[in-house]
Amino acid sequence: MDRFIPFALVAAAEAIAQATWAPSDADSLQQAATVIASGIGGFPAIVLANLAAGHISIR
Asked: Is the Cβ–Cβ distance between 36 and 8 less than 8 Å?
């Protein structure tokens, strides 16, 4: 896991907490999306730039 992914996970958790969003059922989760823009992600792992959104979606 490149260094930028844990930063993305923490930022997403903070954003969800600030939005006070807590899905209560499967339909609420189905209507959610994870969208992250990245110029290159972590430079040593440029091919893994999309993994931040993937890890956030999994969590």
From this structure: yes
- In the DSSP assignment, the letter for residue 50 is T
Token code pair at residue 49: 């730039």
pTM of this prediction? 0.70
Q: pLDDT 10s digit of each residue in the chain, 59 long?
A: 888 889 999 999 999 999 998 888 888 888 888 888 777 656 666 667 778 888 888 88
**41/3 Cα distance (integer angstroms):** 9
**Alpha carbons 52 and 49: distance in angstroms, whole number:** 7
Residue 17 in tokens: 């907490």
